User: Which sequence fits this backbone?
């Protein structure tokens, strides 16, 4: 049948669609088993306080060690997990791991690290008791005072029907802070910055990364920082990779930075060795 098609591109289109469908089916099949097979791991990326250069915050970022394919990045499986609803269980697992890790570091080393956890809009729409369970765990682990921050994206704030405003207030009451991730890339409307209770704005890495070459991006970063401060929010710059970007952001009054200049996301043990042990020594010396 393919003969008559000649060089027609559609000839190639169909099999690739089929391949994609098959790939997706296999991915979903494997994703369903990944939690119980303990294939996920939470990595931690330090968030640096730009005033003191200390690390007292970190972002939890999931990694999937696929038995045949090696590490699959979240950009490849989180969207599928969202479409299938598997993100609920995965998100609860990430929360539990991150919270336990933070409590362990506090108990073992006397160091309090606030951990940021990404929460997708799907998790807000269909909580299945997650909220109550998270609050309960935080109380049990004594992390109910700013030990955890959740990162949400701008799209969530447009979803007027999902009771987001009330939920964010409930999080606040439970001692959880809220970060607005990838700020400036979504369907931004500045009006929601006053409507919702948000503690941190995370400047998207696309702005940070053009700081040297694009004076418009520099102006945008400066304006975002001034605006956030006036509204009582702190600013985290994502994707800081160079000394120049760091210096520009410090100059502009940015509060926190995160990026490869400081560290890539790393496993819990590596984070402990690189960041917690030093802080633990400092805590001993000063007490
Ligand atoms: P995000 O929340 O915006 O996380 C920041 C991403 O930027 C991470 O990618 C991080 O590794 C990367 N990054 C950090 N510093 C730099 C830098 O200096 N340069 C560059 N080029 N990249 C940098 P990652 O870990 O691949 O995660 C991608 C996205 O997947 C996250 O974006 C988040 O939206 C989602 N994600 C990751 N873990 C979870 C999770 O546990 N739950 C949910 N719902 N989403 C997650
Ligand atoms: Mg994030
Ligand atoms: Mg981000
Ligand atoms: Mg991002």
Assistant:
């Amino acid at each position: 049948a393919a003969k008559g098609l000649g060089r027609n591109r559609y000839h190639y289109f169909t099999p690739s669609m089929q391949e994609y469908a098959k790939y997706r089916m296999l991915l979903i099949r494997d994703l369903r088993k990944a939690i119980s097979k303990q294939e996920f791991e939470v990595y931690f990326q330090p968030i640096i306080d730009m005033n003191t250069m200390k690390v007292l915050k970190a972002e939890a970022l999931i990694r999937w060690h696929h038995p045949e394919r090696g590490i699959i990045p979240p950009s490849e499986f989180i969207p599928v997990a969202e479409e299938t609803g598997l993100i609920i269980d995965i998100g609860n697992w990430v929360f539990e791991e991150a919270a336990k890790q933070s409590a362990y570091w506090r108990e073992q080393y006397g160091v309090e690290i606030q951990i940021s956890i990404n929460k997708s809009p799907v998790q807000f729409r269909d909580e299945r008791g997650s909220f109550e369970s998270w609050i309960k765990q935080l109380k049990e682990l004594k992390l109910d005072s700013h030990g955890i921050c959740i990162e949400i994206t701008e799209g969530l704030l447009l979803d007027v029907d999902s009771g987001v405003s009330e939920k964010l207030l409930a999080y606040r009451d439970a001692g959880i802070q809220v970060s607005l991730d990838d700020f400036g890339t979504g369907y931004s409307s500045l009006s929601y910055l006053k409507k919702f209770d948000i503690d941190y704005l995370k400047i998207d890495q696309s702005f940070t990364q053009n700081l040297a070459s694009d004076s418009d991006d520099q102006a945008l970063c400066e304006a975002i920082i001034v605006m956030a401060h006036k509204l009582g929010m702190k600013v985290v710059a994502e994707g800081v990779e160079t000394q120049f970007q760091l210096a520009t952001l410090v100059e502009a009054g940015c509060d926190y930075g995160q990026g490869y200049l400081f560290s890539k996301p790393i496993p819990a043990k590596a984070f402990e060795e690189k960041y917690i042990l030093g802080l633990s020594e400092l805590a001993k010396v000063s007490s």
About this structure: The pocket of C2E (ligand 1) is lined by residues 45, 61-62, 73-75, 78, 87, 91, 94, 118, 120, 151, 181-182, 205, 238-241, 258-260, 265 (CB under 6 Å). The radius of gyration is 21 Å. Residues 88 and 129 are 10 Å apart (CA to CA).
